[in-house]
# Entry
Amino acid sequence: EVHLVESGGGLVQPGGSLRLSCAASGFAFAWAAMSWVRQAPGKGLEWVSSITTDGTIYYADSVNGRFTASRDNARSTLYLHLNGLKTEDTAMYYCVKAQRVDALRSILRGQGTQVTVSS
# Structure
């Protein structure tokens, strides 16, 4: 059974940073494309980033240059470093077991971790 647990969210001031983690179990993590999606209050899911099995990383335009995704296959963990946070980054962040094209419709995601950017 696929199990994904996100952590690392919190309240941060504009311009601040956070590191999100996603601990994965129940599948061969090293062989899985993974993604991050987010949902802001009152809005739909938004794709944020995807990382392939060979380490190729894709970012949404809204976060490119500020967020950095990475993976540690030995620890079956996915990371998302959030830098230069803006109020519009406030959302629940989810890791998803899916490649980029499937990320928004996949049901294989964790419970999420809340990121709130506010002064």
About this structure: The chain has a mean pLDDT of 97. The chain is about 0% helix and 45% strand. The longest strand covers residues 18-25. The radius of gyration is 13 Å.
